[in-house]
Amino acid sequence: MSQTSTATVSHRLDFLKDEIQRLKDDHLYQELRPFDGMQGAEIQMEGRPILNFSSNNYLGLTNHPKLMAAAKQAIDEYGVGAGAVRTIIGTMRIHNELEEKLARFKHCEATLVLQSGFTANMAAIPPIVGEGDVIISDELNHASIIDAVRLSRGAAKDIFPHSNMSALESVLKKHKNARRKLIVTDGVFSMDGDIAKLPEIVALAEKHNAIVMVDDAHGSGVLGDHGRGTVDHFGLHGRVDIVVGTMSKALGTMGGYVASTQAMRDIMINKARPILFSTPHPPSVVASCIAAVELLESDDSLMKKLWYNTRYFKAGMKSIGLPIESETPLCPVIVGTSEKAQKLSQRLFEEGIYGRAIVYPTVAADRARVRIIINATHTQAHLDRCIETFEKIGKELDLLHR
Ligand SMILES: *Cc1c(COP(=O)(O)O)cnc(C)c1O
């Protein structure tokens, strides 16, 4: 559907319509589904109320009064834009303040904040590898890691089967003559909700002298003491070299960061292209990020609620015959074929539950799923309704294993 009726149209782009038709034929075409009002557990979509079970807003901070007030105050104090890239005249005092706060929170020497988690991976990987080095990456790593690896000119790459530690060790041995080895893994895998085997990865890295980098987008604010993430969850402070986090998920705002050493920060400031060639956050976003970190530091009640809800939901799903294998609030309901997952998602929507289908090629063709994400803002009544709806539709579609 077009957005205006007054547009003048270039026919030189008509070839795109064939590509769109191919996507539709393969059931891979996506449309945006706008909702009204604020991101939250209950939203309005297509004119009716829907329970939202797809948001990464784990702690409900997207509309937390403290974060909103901080953003408003920063607009009055500093305006709405940073005006230039960090290295020219785009570093406001408040940008550094957020980074210092994050470094204390993450128990590391220094952090650097990027526009997003996506650009944080772009900033972290290419500047530190080159000719003679190898990047060793879990096969289920996030797209932004995959792209950052592609942009790392000169370095070799090697992919190991998901969380397979003997395969990782074989790859490390195979590259024993590499100048430097960089192991990269998601902290929490975004499609399955499982946690990386970080203690084993760190032990192997120490044995084979490899650098370890963890992208903890779904672990930030969710795992570890007060949401300090996967490294804290396993008590591995000081043994993981680079942690990428995001403030766009549990922290409710927007932005990525790289938490590491002062030297790592300094090299990224000098070499990372998202720093050198793209403007940083406006002060309002920075201020709400600061408020989010302060909130996490001072109060873990939302995190406790998130985990209480997660246990409650998983127990309920198990009792109806749809057990969930994940280790986190990210709950894949794996049903098999893409068609089944699409149907389940569609039926859930008709019944007032929003859960996105995730299909090939994002996941294996026979492991299509609906991904449910539990938030701290879900009430017991919301969770009960979700479970009851799964039971009803599960019967219709013959999905329940009992
Ligand atoms: C979501 C996600 C990102 C991207 O974070 P944004 O802040 O949304 O750009 C990066 N890595 C992983 C593992 C993610 O899940």
The second-level CATH architecture of the largest domain is 3-Layer(aba) Sandwich
Helix content, binned percent = 40-55%
Radius of gyration: 22 Å
Reading the helices and strands in chain order gives HEEHHHEHEHEHEHEHEEHHHHEHEEEH
Structural class comes to alpha/beta
CATH class of the largest domain: Alpha Beta
Query: Which sequence of strands runs across the widest sheet?
Result: 3-9-8-7-6-4-5
Q: How many angstroms does the end-to-end distance come to?
A: 44 Å
The number of strands is 13
Q: Indicate the mean pLDDT.
A: 96
Explain this structure.
By secondary structure, the protein is α/β, with parallel strands linked by helices. The chain folds into 2 domains: 29-62 and 300-396, Alpha-Beta Complex (Aspartate Aminotransferase, domain 1); 82-281, Aspartate Aminotransferase, domain 2 (3-Layer(aba) Sandwich), CATH 3.40.640.10. It contains 15 helices and 13 strands. It has helices spanning 15-25, 65-78, 86-90, 93-105, 117-124, 143-150, 165-174, 198-208, 230-233, 262-271, 273-276, 283-298, 301-319, 338-350, 380-396, and strands at residues 42-45, 48-52, 110-114, 134-138, 156-160, 181-186, 211-215, 242-246, 256-260, 330-336, 353-354, 356-358, 368-373. The strands form 3 sheets. It has a 7-stranded mixed β-sheet with strand order 3-9-8-7-6-4-5, with helices on both faces. Strands 1-2-11 form a 3-stranded mixed β-sheet. It has a 3-stranded antiparallel β-sheet with strand order 10-13-12, covered by helices on one side. Helix 2 (65-78) packs antiparallel against helix 12, helix 4 runs parallel beside helix 12 (283-298) and helix 13 packs parallel to helix 15. The termini are far apart.
